[in-house]
Amino acid sequence: LVFVMHLQEFVTVLVRDPRIQKEDSWHSYIDYEIFIHTNSICFTRKTSCVRRRFREFVWLRQRLQSNAVLIQLPELPSKTPFFNMNNPHHVDHRRQGLQEFLEKILQDALLLSDSRLHLFLQTQLSPEDMEACVSGQTKYSVADAIHSFASLNRRFPIEDEERKKGKSDADSDSESSSSGLGPSDDSISCGCKASPASEES
Questions:
Q1: Domains, in order of start, for the chain
Q2: Which stretches are tagged as biased composition: Basic and acidic residues (predicted)?
Q3: Ramachandran bin of 27, using left for φ above 0, alpha for ψ from -120 to 50, beta for the remaining angles
């Protein structure tokens, strides 16, 4: 007698750890860590961790909307002219809005089938590179991009320090030992690096 357990599929997404990044001496922006933990067959990696800025969320929403014309996509938090990156309330309000946006999107099977969404959540590719990858203009596939990003970002920042001292022990599939529910400091930022500032605005 064989019992087949049907595990309920889940996708946990956390938008956390806002950080101010300097583009140059005049311009700064905030990026946020996006942490994914899932058992869904839709995802190439079961855990991942990237950093994205508001402008990239705007790009993602536009692309998803152009591909899924009949779906009314959830709104992003409004882009207010009075947004102050030094005001913790403003920053946290935006962070919550971005998390709610992703939570709603990840419940839609049609949107989940869009490769751009997966590249956005599981690689640090720029919007231009995501477009190129999805339209077949790169040597690497979507899955290749996700796997190579994961292998580059396997270690925690603390482990990076250890590696520099000559120690090395990498565990290939568990990229985060954190539940993601505690305070987010460097010890649980699962190896996210800030994306290099790109020229789109």
A1: 11-153 (3.30.1520.10)
A2: 157-170
A3: beta
